[in-house]
Amino acid sequence: MLYVRTEEEFKSYPWCRRILRGLGDEARKKRVPLREIGDAAQIPPQDRETAVLLIGASEAWIGREALRADALGVHPIALTNRPPAGRDGAMSAVMMDIPDSMRLAVDYLRSLGCERLGLYGVNPAATSDPWRAEVFQRLTKGKGGVFVTQRSLQHTFECFRSQLSACDGVICASDYAALSLVRRLGQVGAGQPGSPYLLGYGNLFLSRLSSPSITSISDDYEHFGRAALAAYHLVVREKTVSSVNILLHSRLHVRETTGGRPYAGARHGPEEAGQRPRNPFYEDGEVSRMAMLETLLGQCDETDFAVLQCLMHGDTYAATAEKCFVSETAAKYRVKKMEKMCGANSRGELVSFLREFF
């Protein structure tokens, strides 16, 4: 039995219904029984070596419910856009890859020639929007404008309107924000050729049917079900797995608000990545030699370990062959293989290398 706990305030949103629909379809295919519960305490004591799916939009709610499940011995699997930070205890998560989807949005607009980007309609109370804003600022090196919805979308537009001419590309944090922006741009006569290219998040039916239709990045919430069941099977049936984090890709749906222009560019990483920083630890010769020895020992069988002991004792090949129950040729072959793995040019060099650590 797989249990499902949903944040009450989140149930009425289309995203939640899509997650539940996809989850139900996948559970029927896999013949996994589902049961919705109002509290983790409703899980019978005899069934607590299982998992509960936590579907919600609030980090605080997910964190609280994960603690309750963990205390009962039930493994929490959060279906969310961002797991709660600083939480102790094992918890799995299925999430949209927010950084990857923001890179897709920025790369697409840049491939269309947009250089002055804005992020519009950020909801500071959501789990994903502040994260989107962080990634956006990083990708634009702090030069992109971020317009936060503190009161209403009407107020957000009033703040944005004075800077409209400064943006040639706008990423809306949701399709709701995109729909609102397109409507208001039309009302003030700005929704004409030369207006900024615009895209949203969510791929709602409204964004497909609006005029103009809105280019959108889809978070395929139906895929949460498949990923959630994969995580469930891993953490419940594979006892060596303590937790699983799964990131889901997003897709771009090109429509009229970007002129129907296809995405012709390749996916790029963040611009600030640059050259990889040095890691002095792995440049340390002592560490490298220990790593080489660990690799050697990891590939040894029982006979190899016996040969190593004979080497350390200074035994001849004949004595080694007798003690290890192999031919002298086989003993020499094994030693040569060890020399090669350790970069040693002779048996003596190999023994010196071993005696550094034993």
UniProtKB/TrEMBL annotation:
Residues 297-354 form the HTH luxR-type domain. Keywords: DNA-binding, Transcription, Transcription regulation. One of its GO terms (molecular function) is DNA-binding transcription factor activity. Residues 258-279 are annotated as: Disordered. Gene3D superfamilies: 3.40.50.2300. It comes from the Bacteria. PANTHER family: HTH-TYPE TRANSCRIPTIONAL REGULATOR GALS, LACI-RELATED TRANSCRIPTIONAL REPRESSOR. This is Substrate-binding domain-containing protein. The lineage of its organism: Bacteria, Bacillati, Bacillota, Clostridia, Eubacteriales.
